[in-house]
Amino acid sequence: MRLRGPGGVSSSAVRLNGTAILALLATSGCGRSPLDSLAGAGATADGGSKGTVTRAFTKISAGWWHTCGLRVDGTVSCWGDNYYGQSTPPAGTFTQISAGSGHTCGLLTDGTVSCWGENYIGQSTPPTGTFTQISAGSAQTCGLRSDGTASCWGDNWYGTFVPPAGTFSQISVGERHTCGLRPDGSVACWGDSFDGETTPPAGTFTQISTGSRHTCGLRPDGIVACWGDDTEGQSTPPAGAFSQITAGQQHTCGLQAGGTATCWGHNDRGQSTALAGTFDQISAGAEHTCGLRPDGTVACWGSNSSWQGTPRAGTYTQTSTGWQHTCGLRVDGTAACWGDDSYGQATPPPGTFTEISAGTFHTCGLRPDGTAACWGDSAGTAYGPALPVAGAFTQISAAEQQTCALRTDGRAACWGHNWGGMADAPAGIFTWISAGNDHTCGLRADGTAACWGYNYFGESTPLAGTFTRISAGDRHTCGLRADGTAACWGDDSYGQATPPPGTFTQISAGSYHICGLRADGTAACWGDDEHGQATPPPGAFTQISAYSSHTCGLRADGTTACWGALVTPDP
């Protein structure tokens, strides 16, 4: 099924992790020190739920709507928003990474800087030469060269582009200001100082961290001193000694001597309610905070409004991508979901399922007895009620405004909104059904396709001939012929209705892109690739699911890999 996401993009749903193991969001204004980029992956849901990610990282950095982590082998994995390609890291090994707002930068092992993502003002075009530390902010990036001097690139609206003369031992970029730690322990800041964030107190520090409009530093005796905006108490640290400090948008967190985390400031998303236990590093984002445990796992708390979520470890037999959430079936038949849960679409009920299908604001699954269970927007306040009709079914497909399923006798039944007749299933027997954004298509017993609903772009006027599978996208549809070739009809504004040559074993239509599996299991995608949703990773898959602006695939070992705007890391 496909859902229309931002800007009319549709999406397919896959969900894993009903209990909020979520990815992080950091604000563009949350500057990152070398220590800031060592924490964070997996955030909590908007209600303040908490989670952990059971995969080993040595460093992690939370960006605005995406997160990147440095693995033990030095490679980088990113997940979350990929609108500008900020979650598609290049090949190679790195020693440090820093995620900004719409871009990410890292230090390669040879000391050179590599950046990817948004580059409208040059924030992802680093200068040549080698660096020892890097920090990505909102629309600017700064790094320390081998001689200790600072170089910055990108936005210079508030003077953040031009650092003062002299050398530094650490640098941290905030939203509109930057601060650097001198070798003698003094602090120098530059850029916007509307709230006094570039006016540090006298004395020496051992570490600094810039937030959105405030800055905090660690004194030699472990005492924290902060300056700048204190609207939410983010610049009023508690008493006691700390070993590390990290400033977020309007909150601040620190590690105390024993490794426990303490936070203060804004707490509307639970970002200042630290998890119990000990951490080696900690990193504060916009409305979330993440810490790196001694065993290399990551635990996060606070907001997950970026919808990118992080799946629990484990293996799955099926995945389904929705608009801003994803669901999967575990090997024991239970469902796990992650991502947006604003309507409860990512909170599956207990029990087992044989199939699952994620829509825009709801998800449906088939029980072992064939009955359908749906959760999410059951009242239909958003796009359509999730409450299914009675009876037993053999296949189900949830979309943006409607859900359709095949009864045991092959008849189609649909519920939800019926704009354009998209829920008016014709009479007859079907072997497969697929609900799209504004139309629905099914395969009849003789292999011919029948579609109903809106037909603005010809999406409900199938090609002649027979098909073995069919997948309805936003305003286009694709089917697999008996010989494995793909044939598509409807909107082709992004090339989504023009499949490449060759054969496929499976096909899945997103909003404006399509992905299919080749005979060797590799994925091939075509159409809109603005978010990287049509650029699959290498390797083989056993199942694939495309939705709005992201795609997920199931590996042979049962793990998931996702790409595009709603990327999640491999378990």
Descriptive keywords:
single chain, 571 residues, Methylamine Dehydrogenase, Chain H, 2 domains, 4-stranded antiparallel β-sheet, 3-stranded antiparallel β-sheet, 0% helix, 39% strand, elongated, disordered N terminus
Q: At the fourth CATH level, what is the homologous superfamily of the largest domain?
A: Regulator of chromosome condensation 1/beta-lactamase-inhibitor protein II
Mean pLDDT: 83
Text of the CATH class of the largest domain: Mainly Beta
CATH fold field value of the largest domain: Methylamine Dehydrogenase, Chain H
The percent range for strand residues is: 35-45%
Radius of gyration: 25 Å
Major beta sheet, strand line-up: 1-22-21-20
Q: From the helix content, strand content and strand pairing, which structural class follows?
A: mainly beta
Shape: elongated
Count of structural domains:
2
How many extended strands? 43
Q: How would a crystallographer describe the biggest sheet?
A: 4 strands, antiparallel
The total of helices stands at 0
Helix proportion:
under 10%
CATH architecture of the largest domain: 7 Propeller
Distance between the termini: 24 Å
- Indicate the low-confidence ranges by residue numbers: 1-55, 306-312, 567-571
Describe it for me?
The protein is built from no helices and 43 strands. By secondary structure, it is mainly β. The protein has 2 domains: 18-302, Regulator of chromosome condensation 1/beta-lactamase-inhibitor protein II (Methylamine Dehydrogenase, Chain H, 7 Propeller); 316-564, Regulator of chromosome condensation 1/beta-lactamase-inhibitor protein II (Methylamine Dehydrogenase, Chain H, 7 Propeller). The strands form 14 sheets. The protein has a 4-stranded antiparallel sheet, with no helix packed on it. Strand 30 (402-407) and strand 31 form a beta hairpin. The protein is elongated, with a radius of gyration of 25 Å. It starts with 50 loop residues before the first strand and ends in a 7-residue tail after the last strand. The model is unreliable at 1-55, 306-312 and 567-571 (pLDDT under 50).
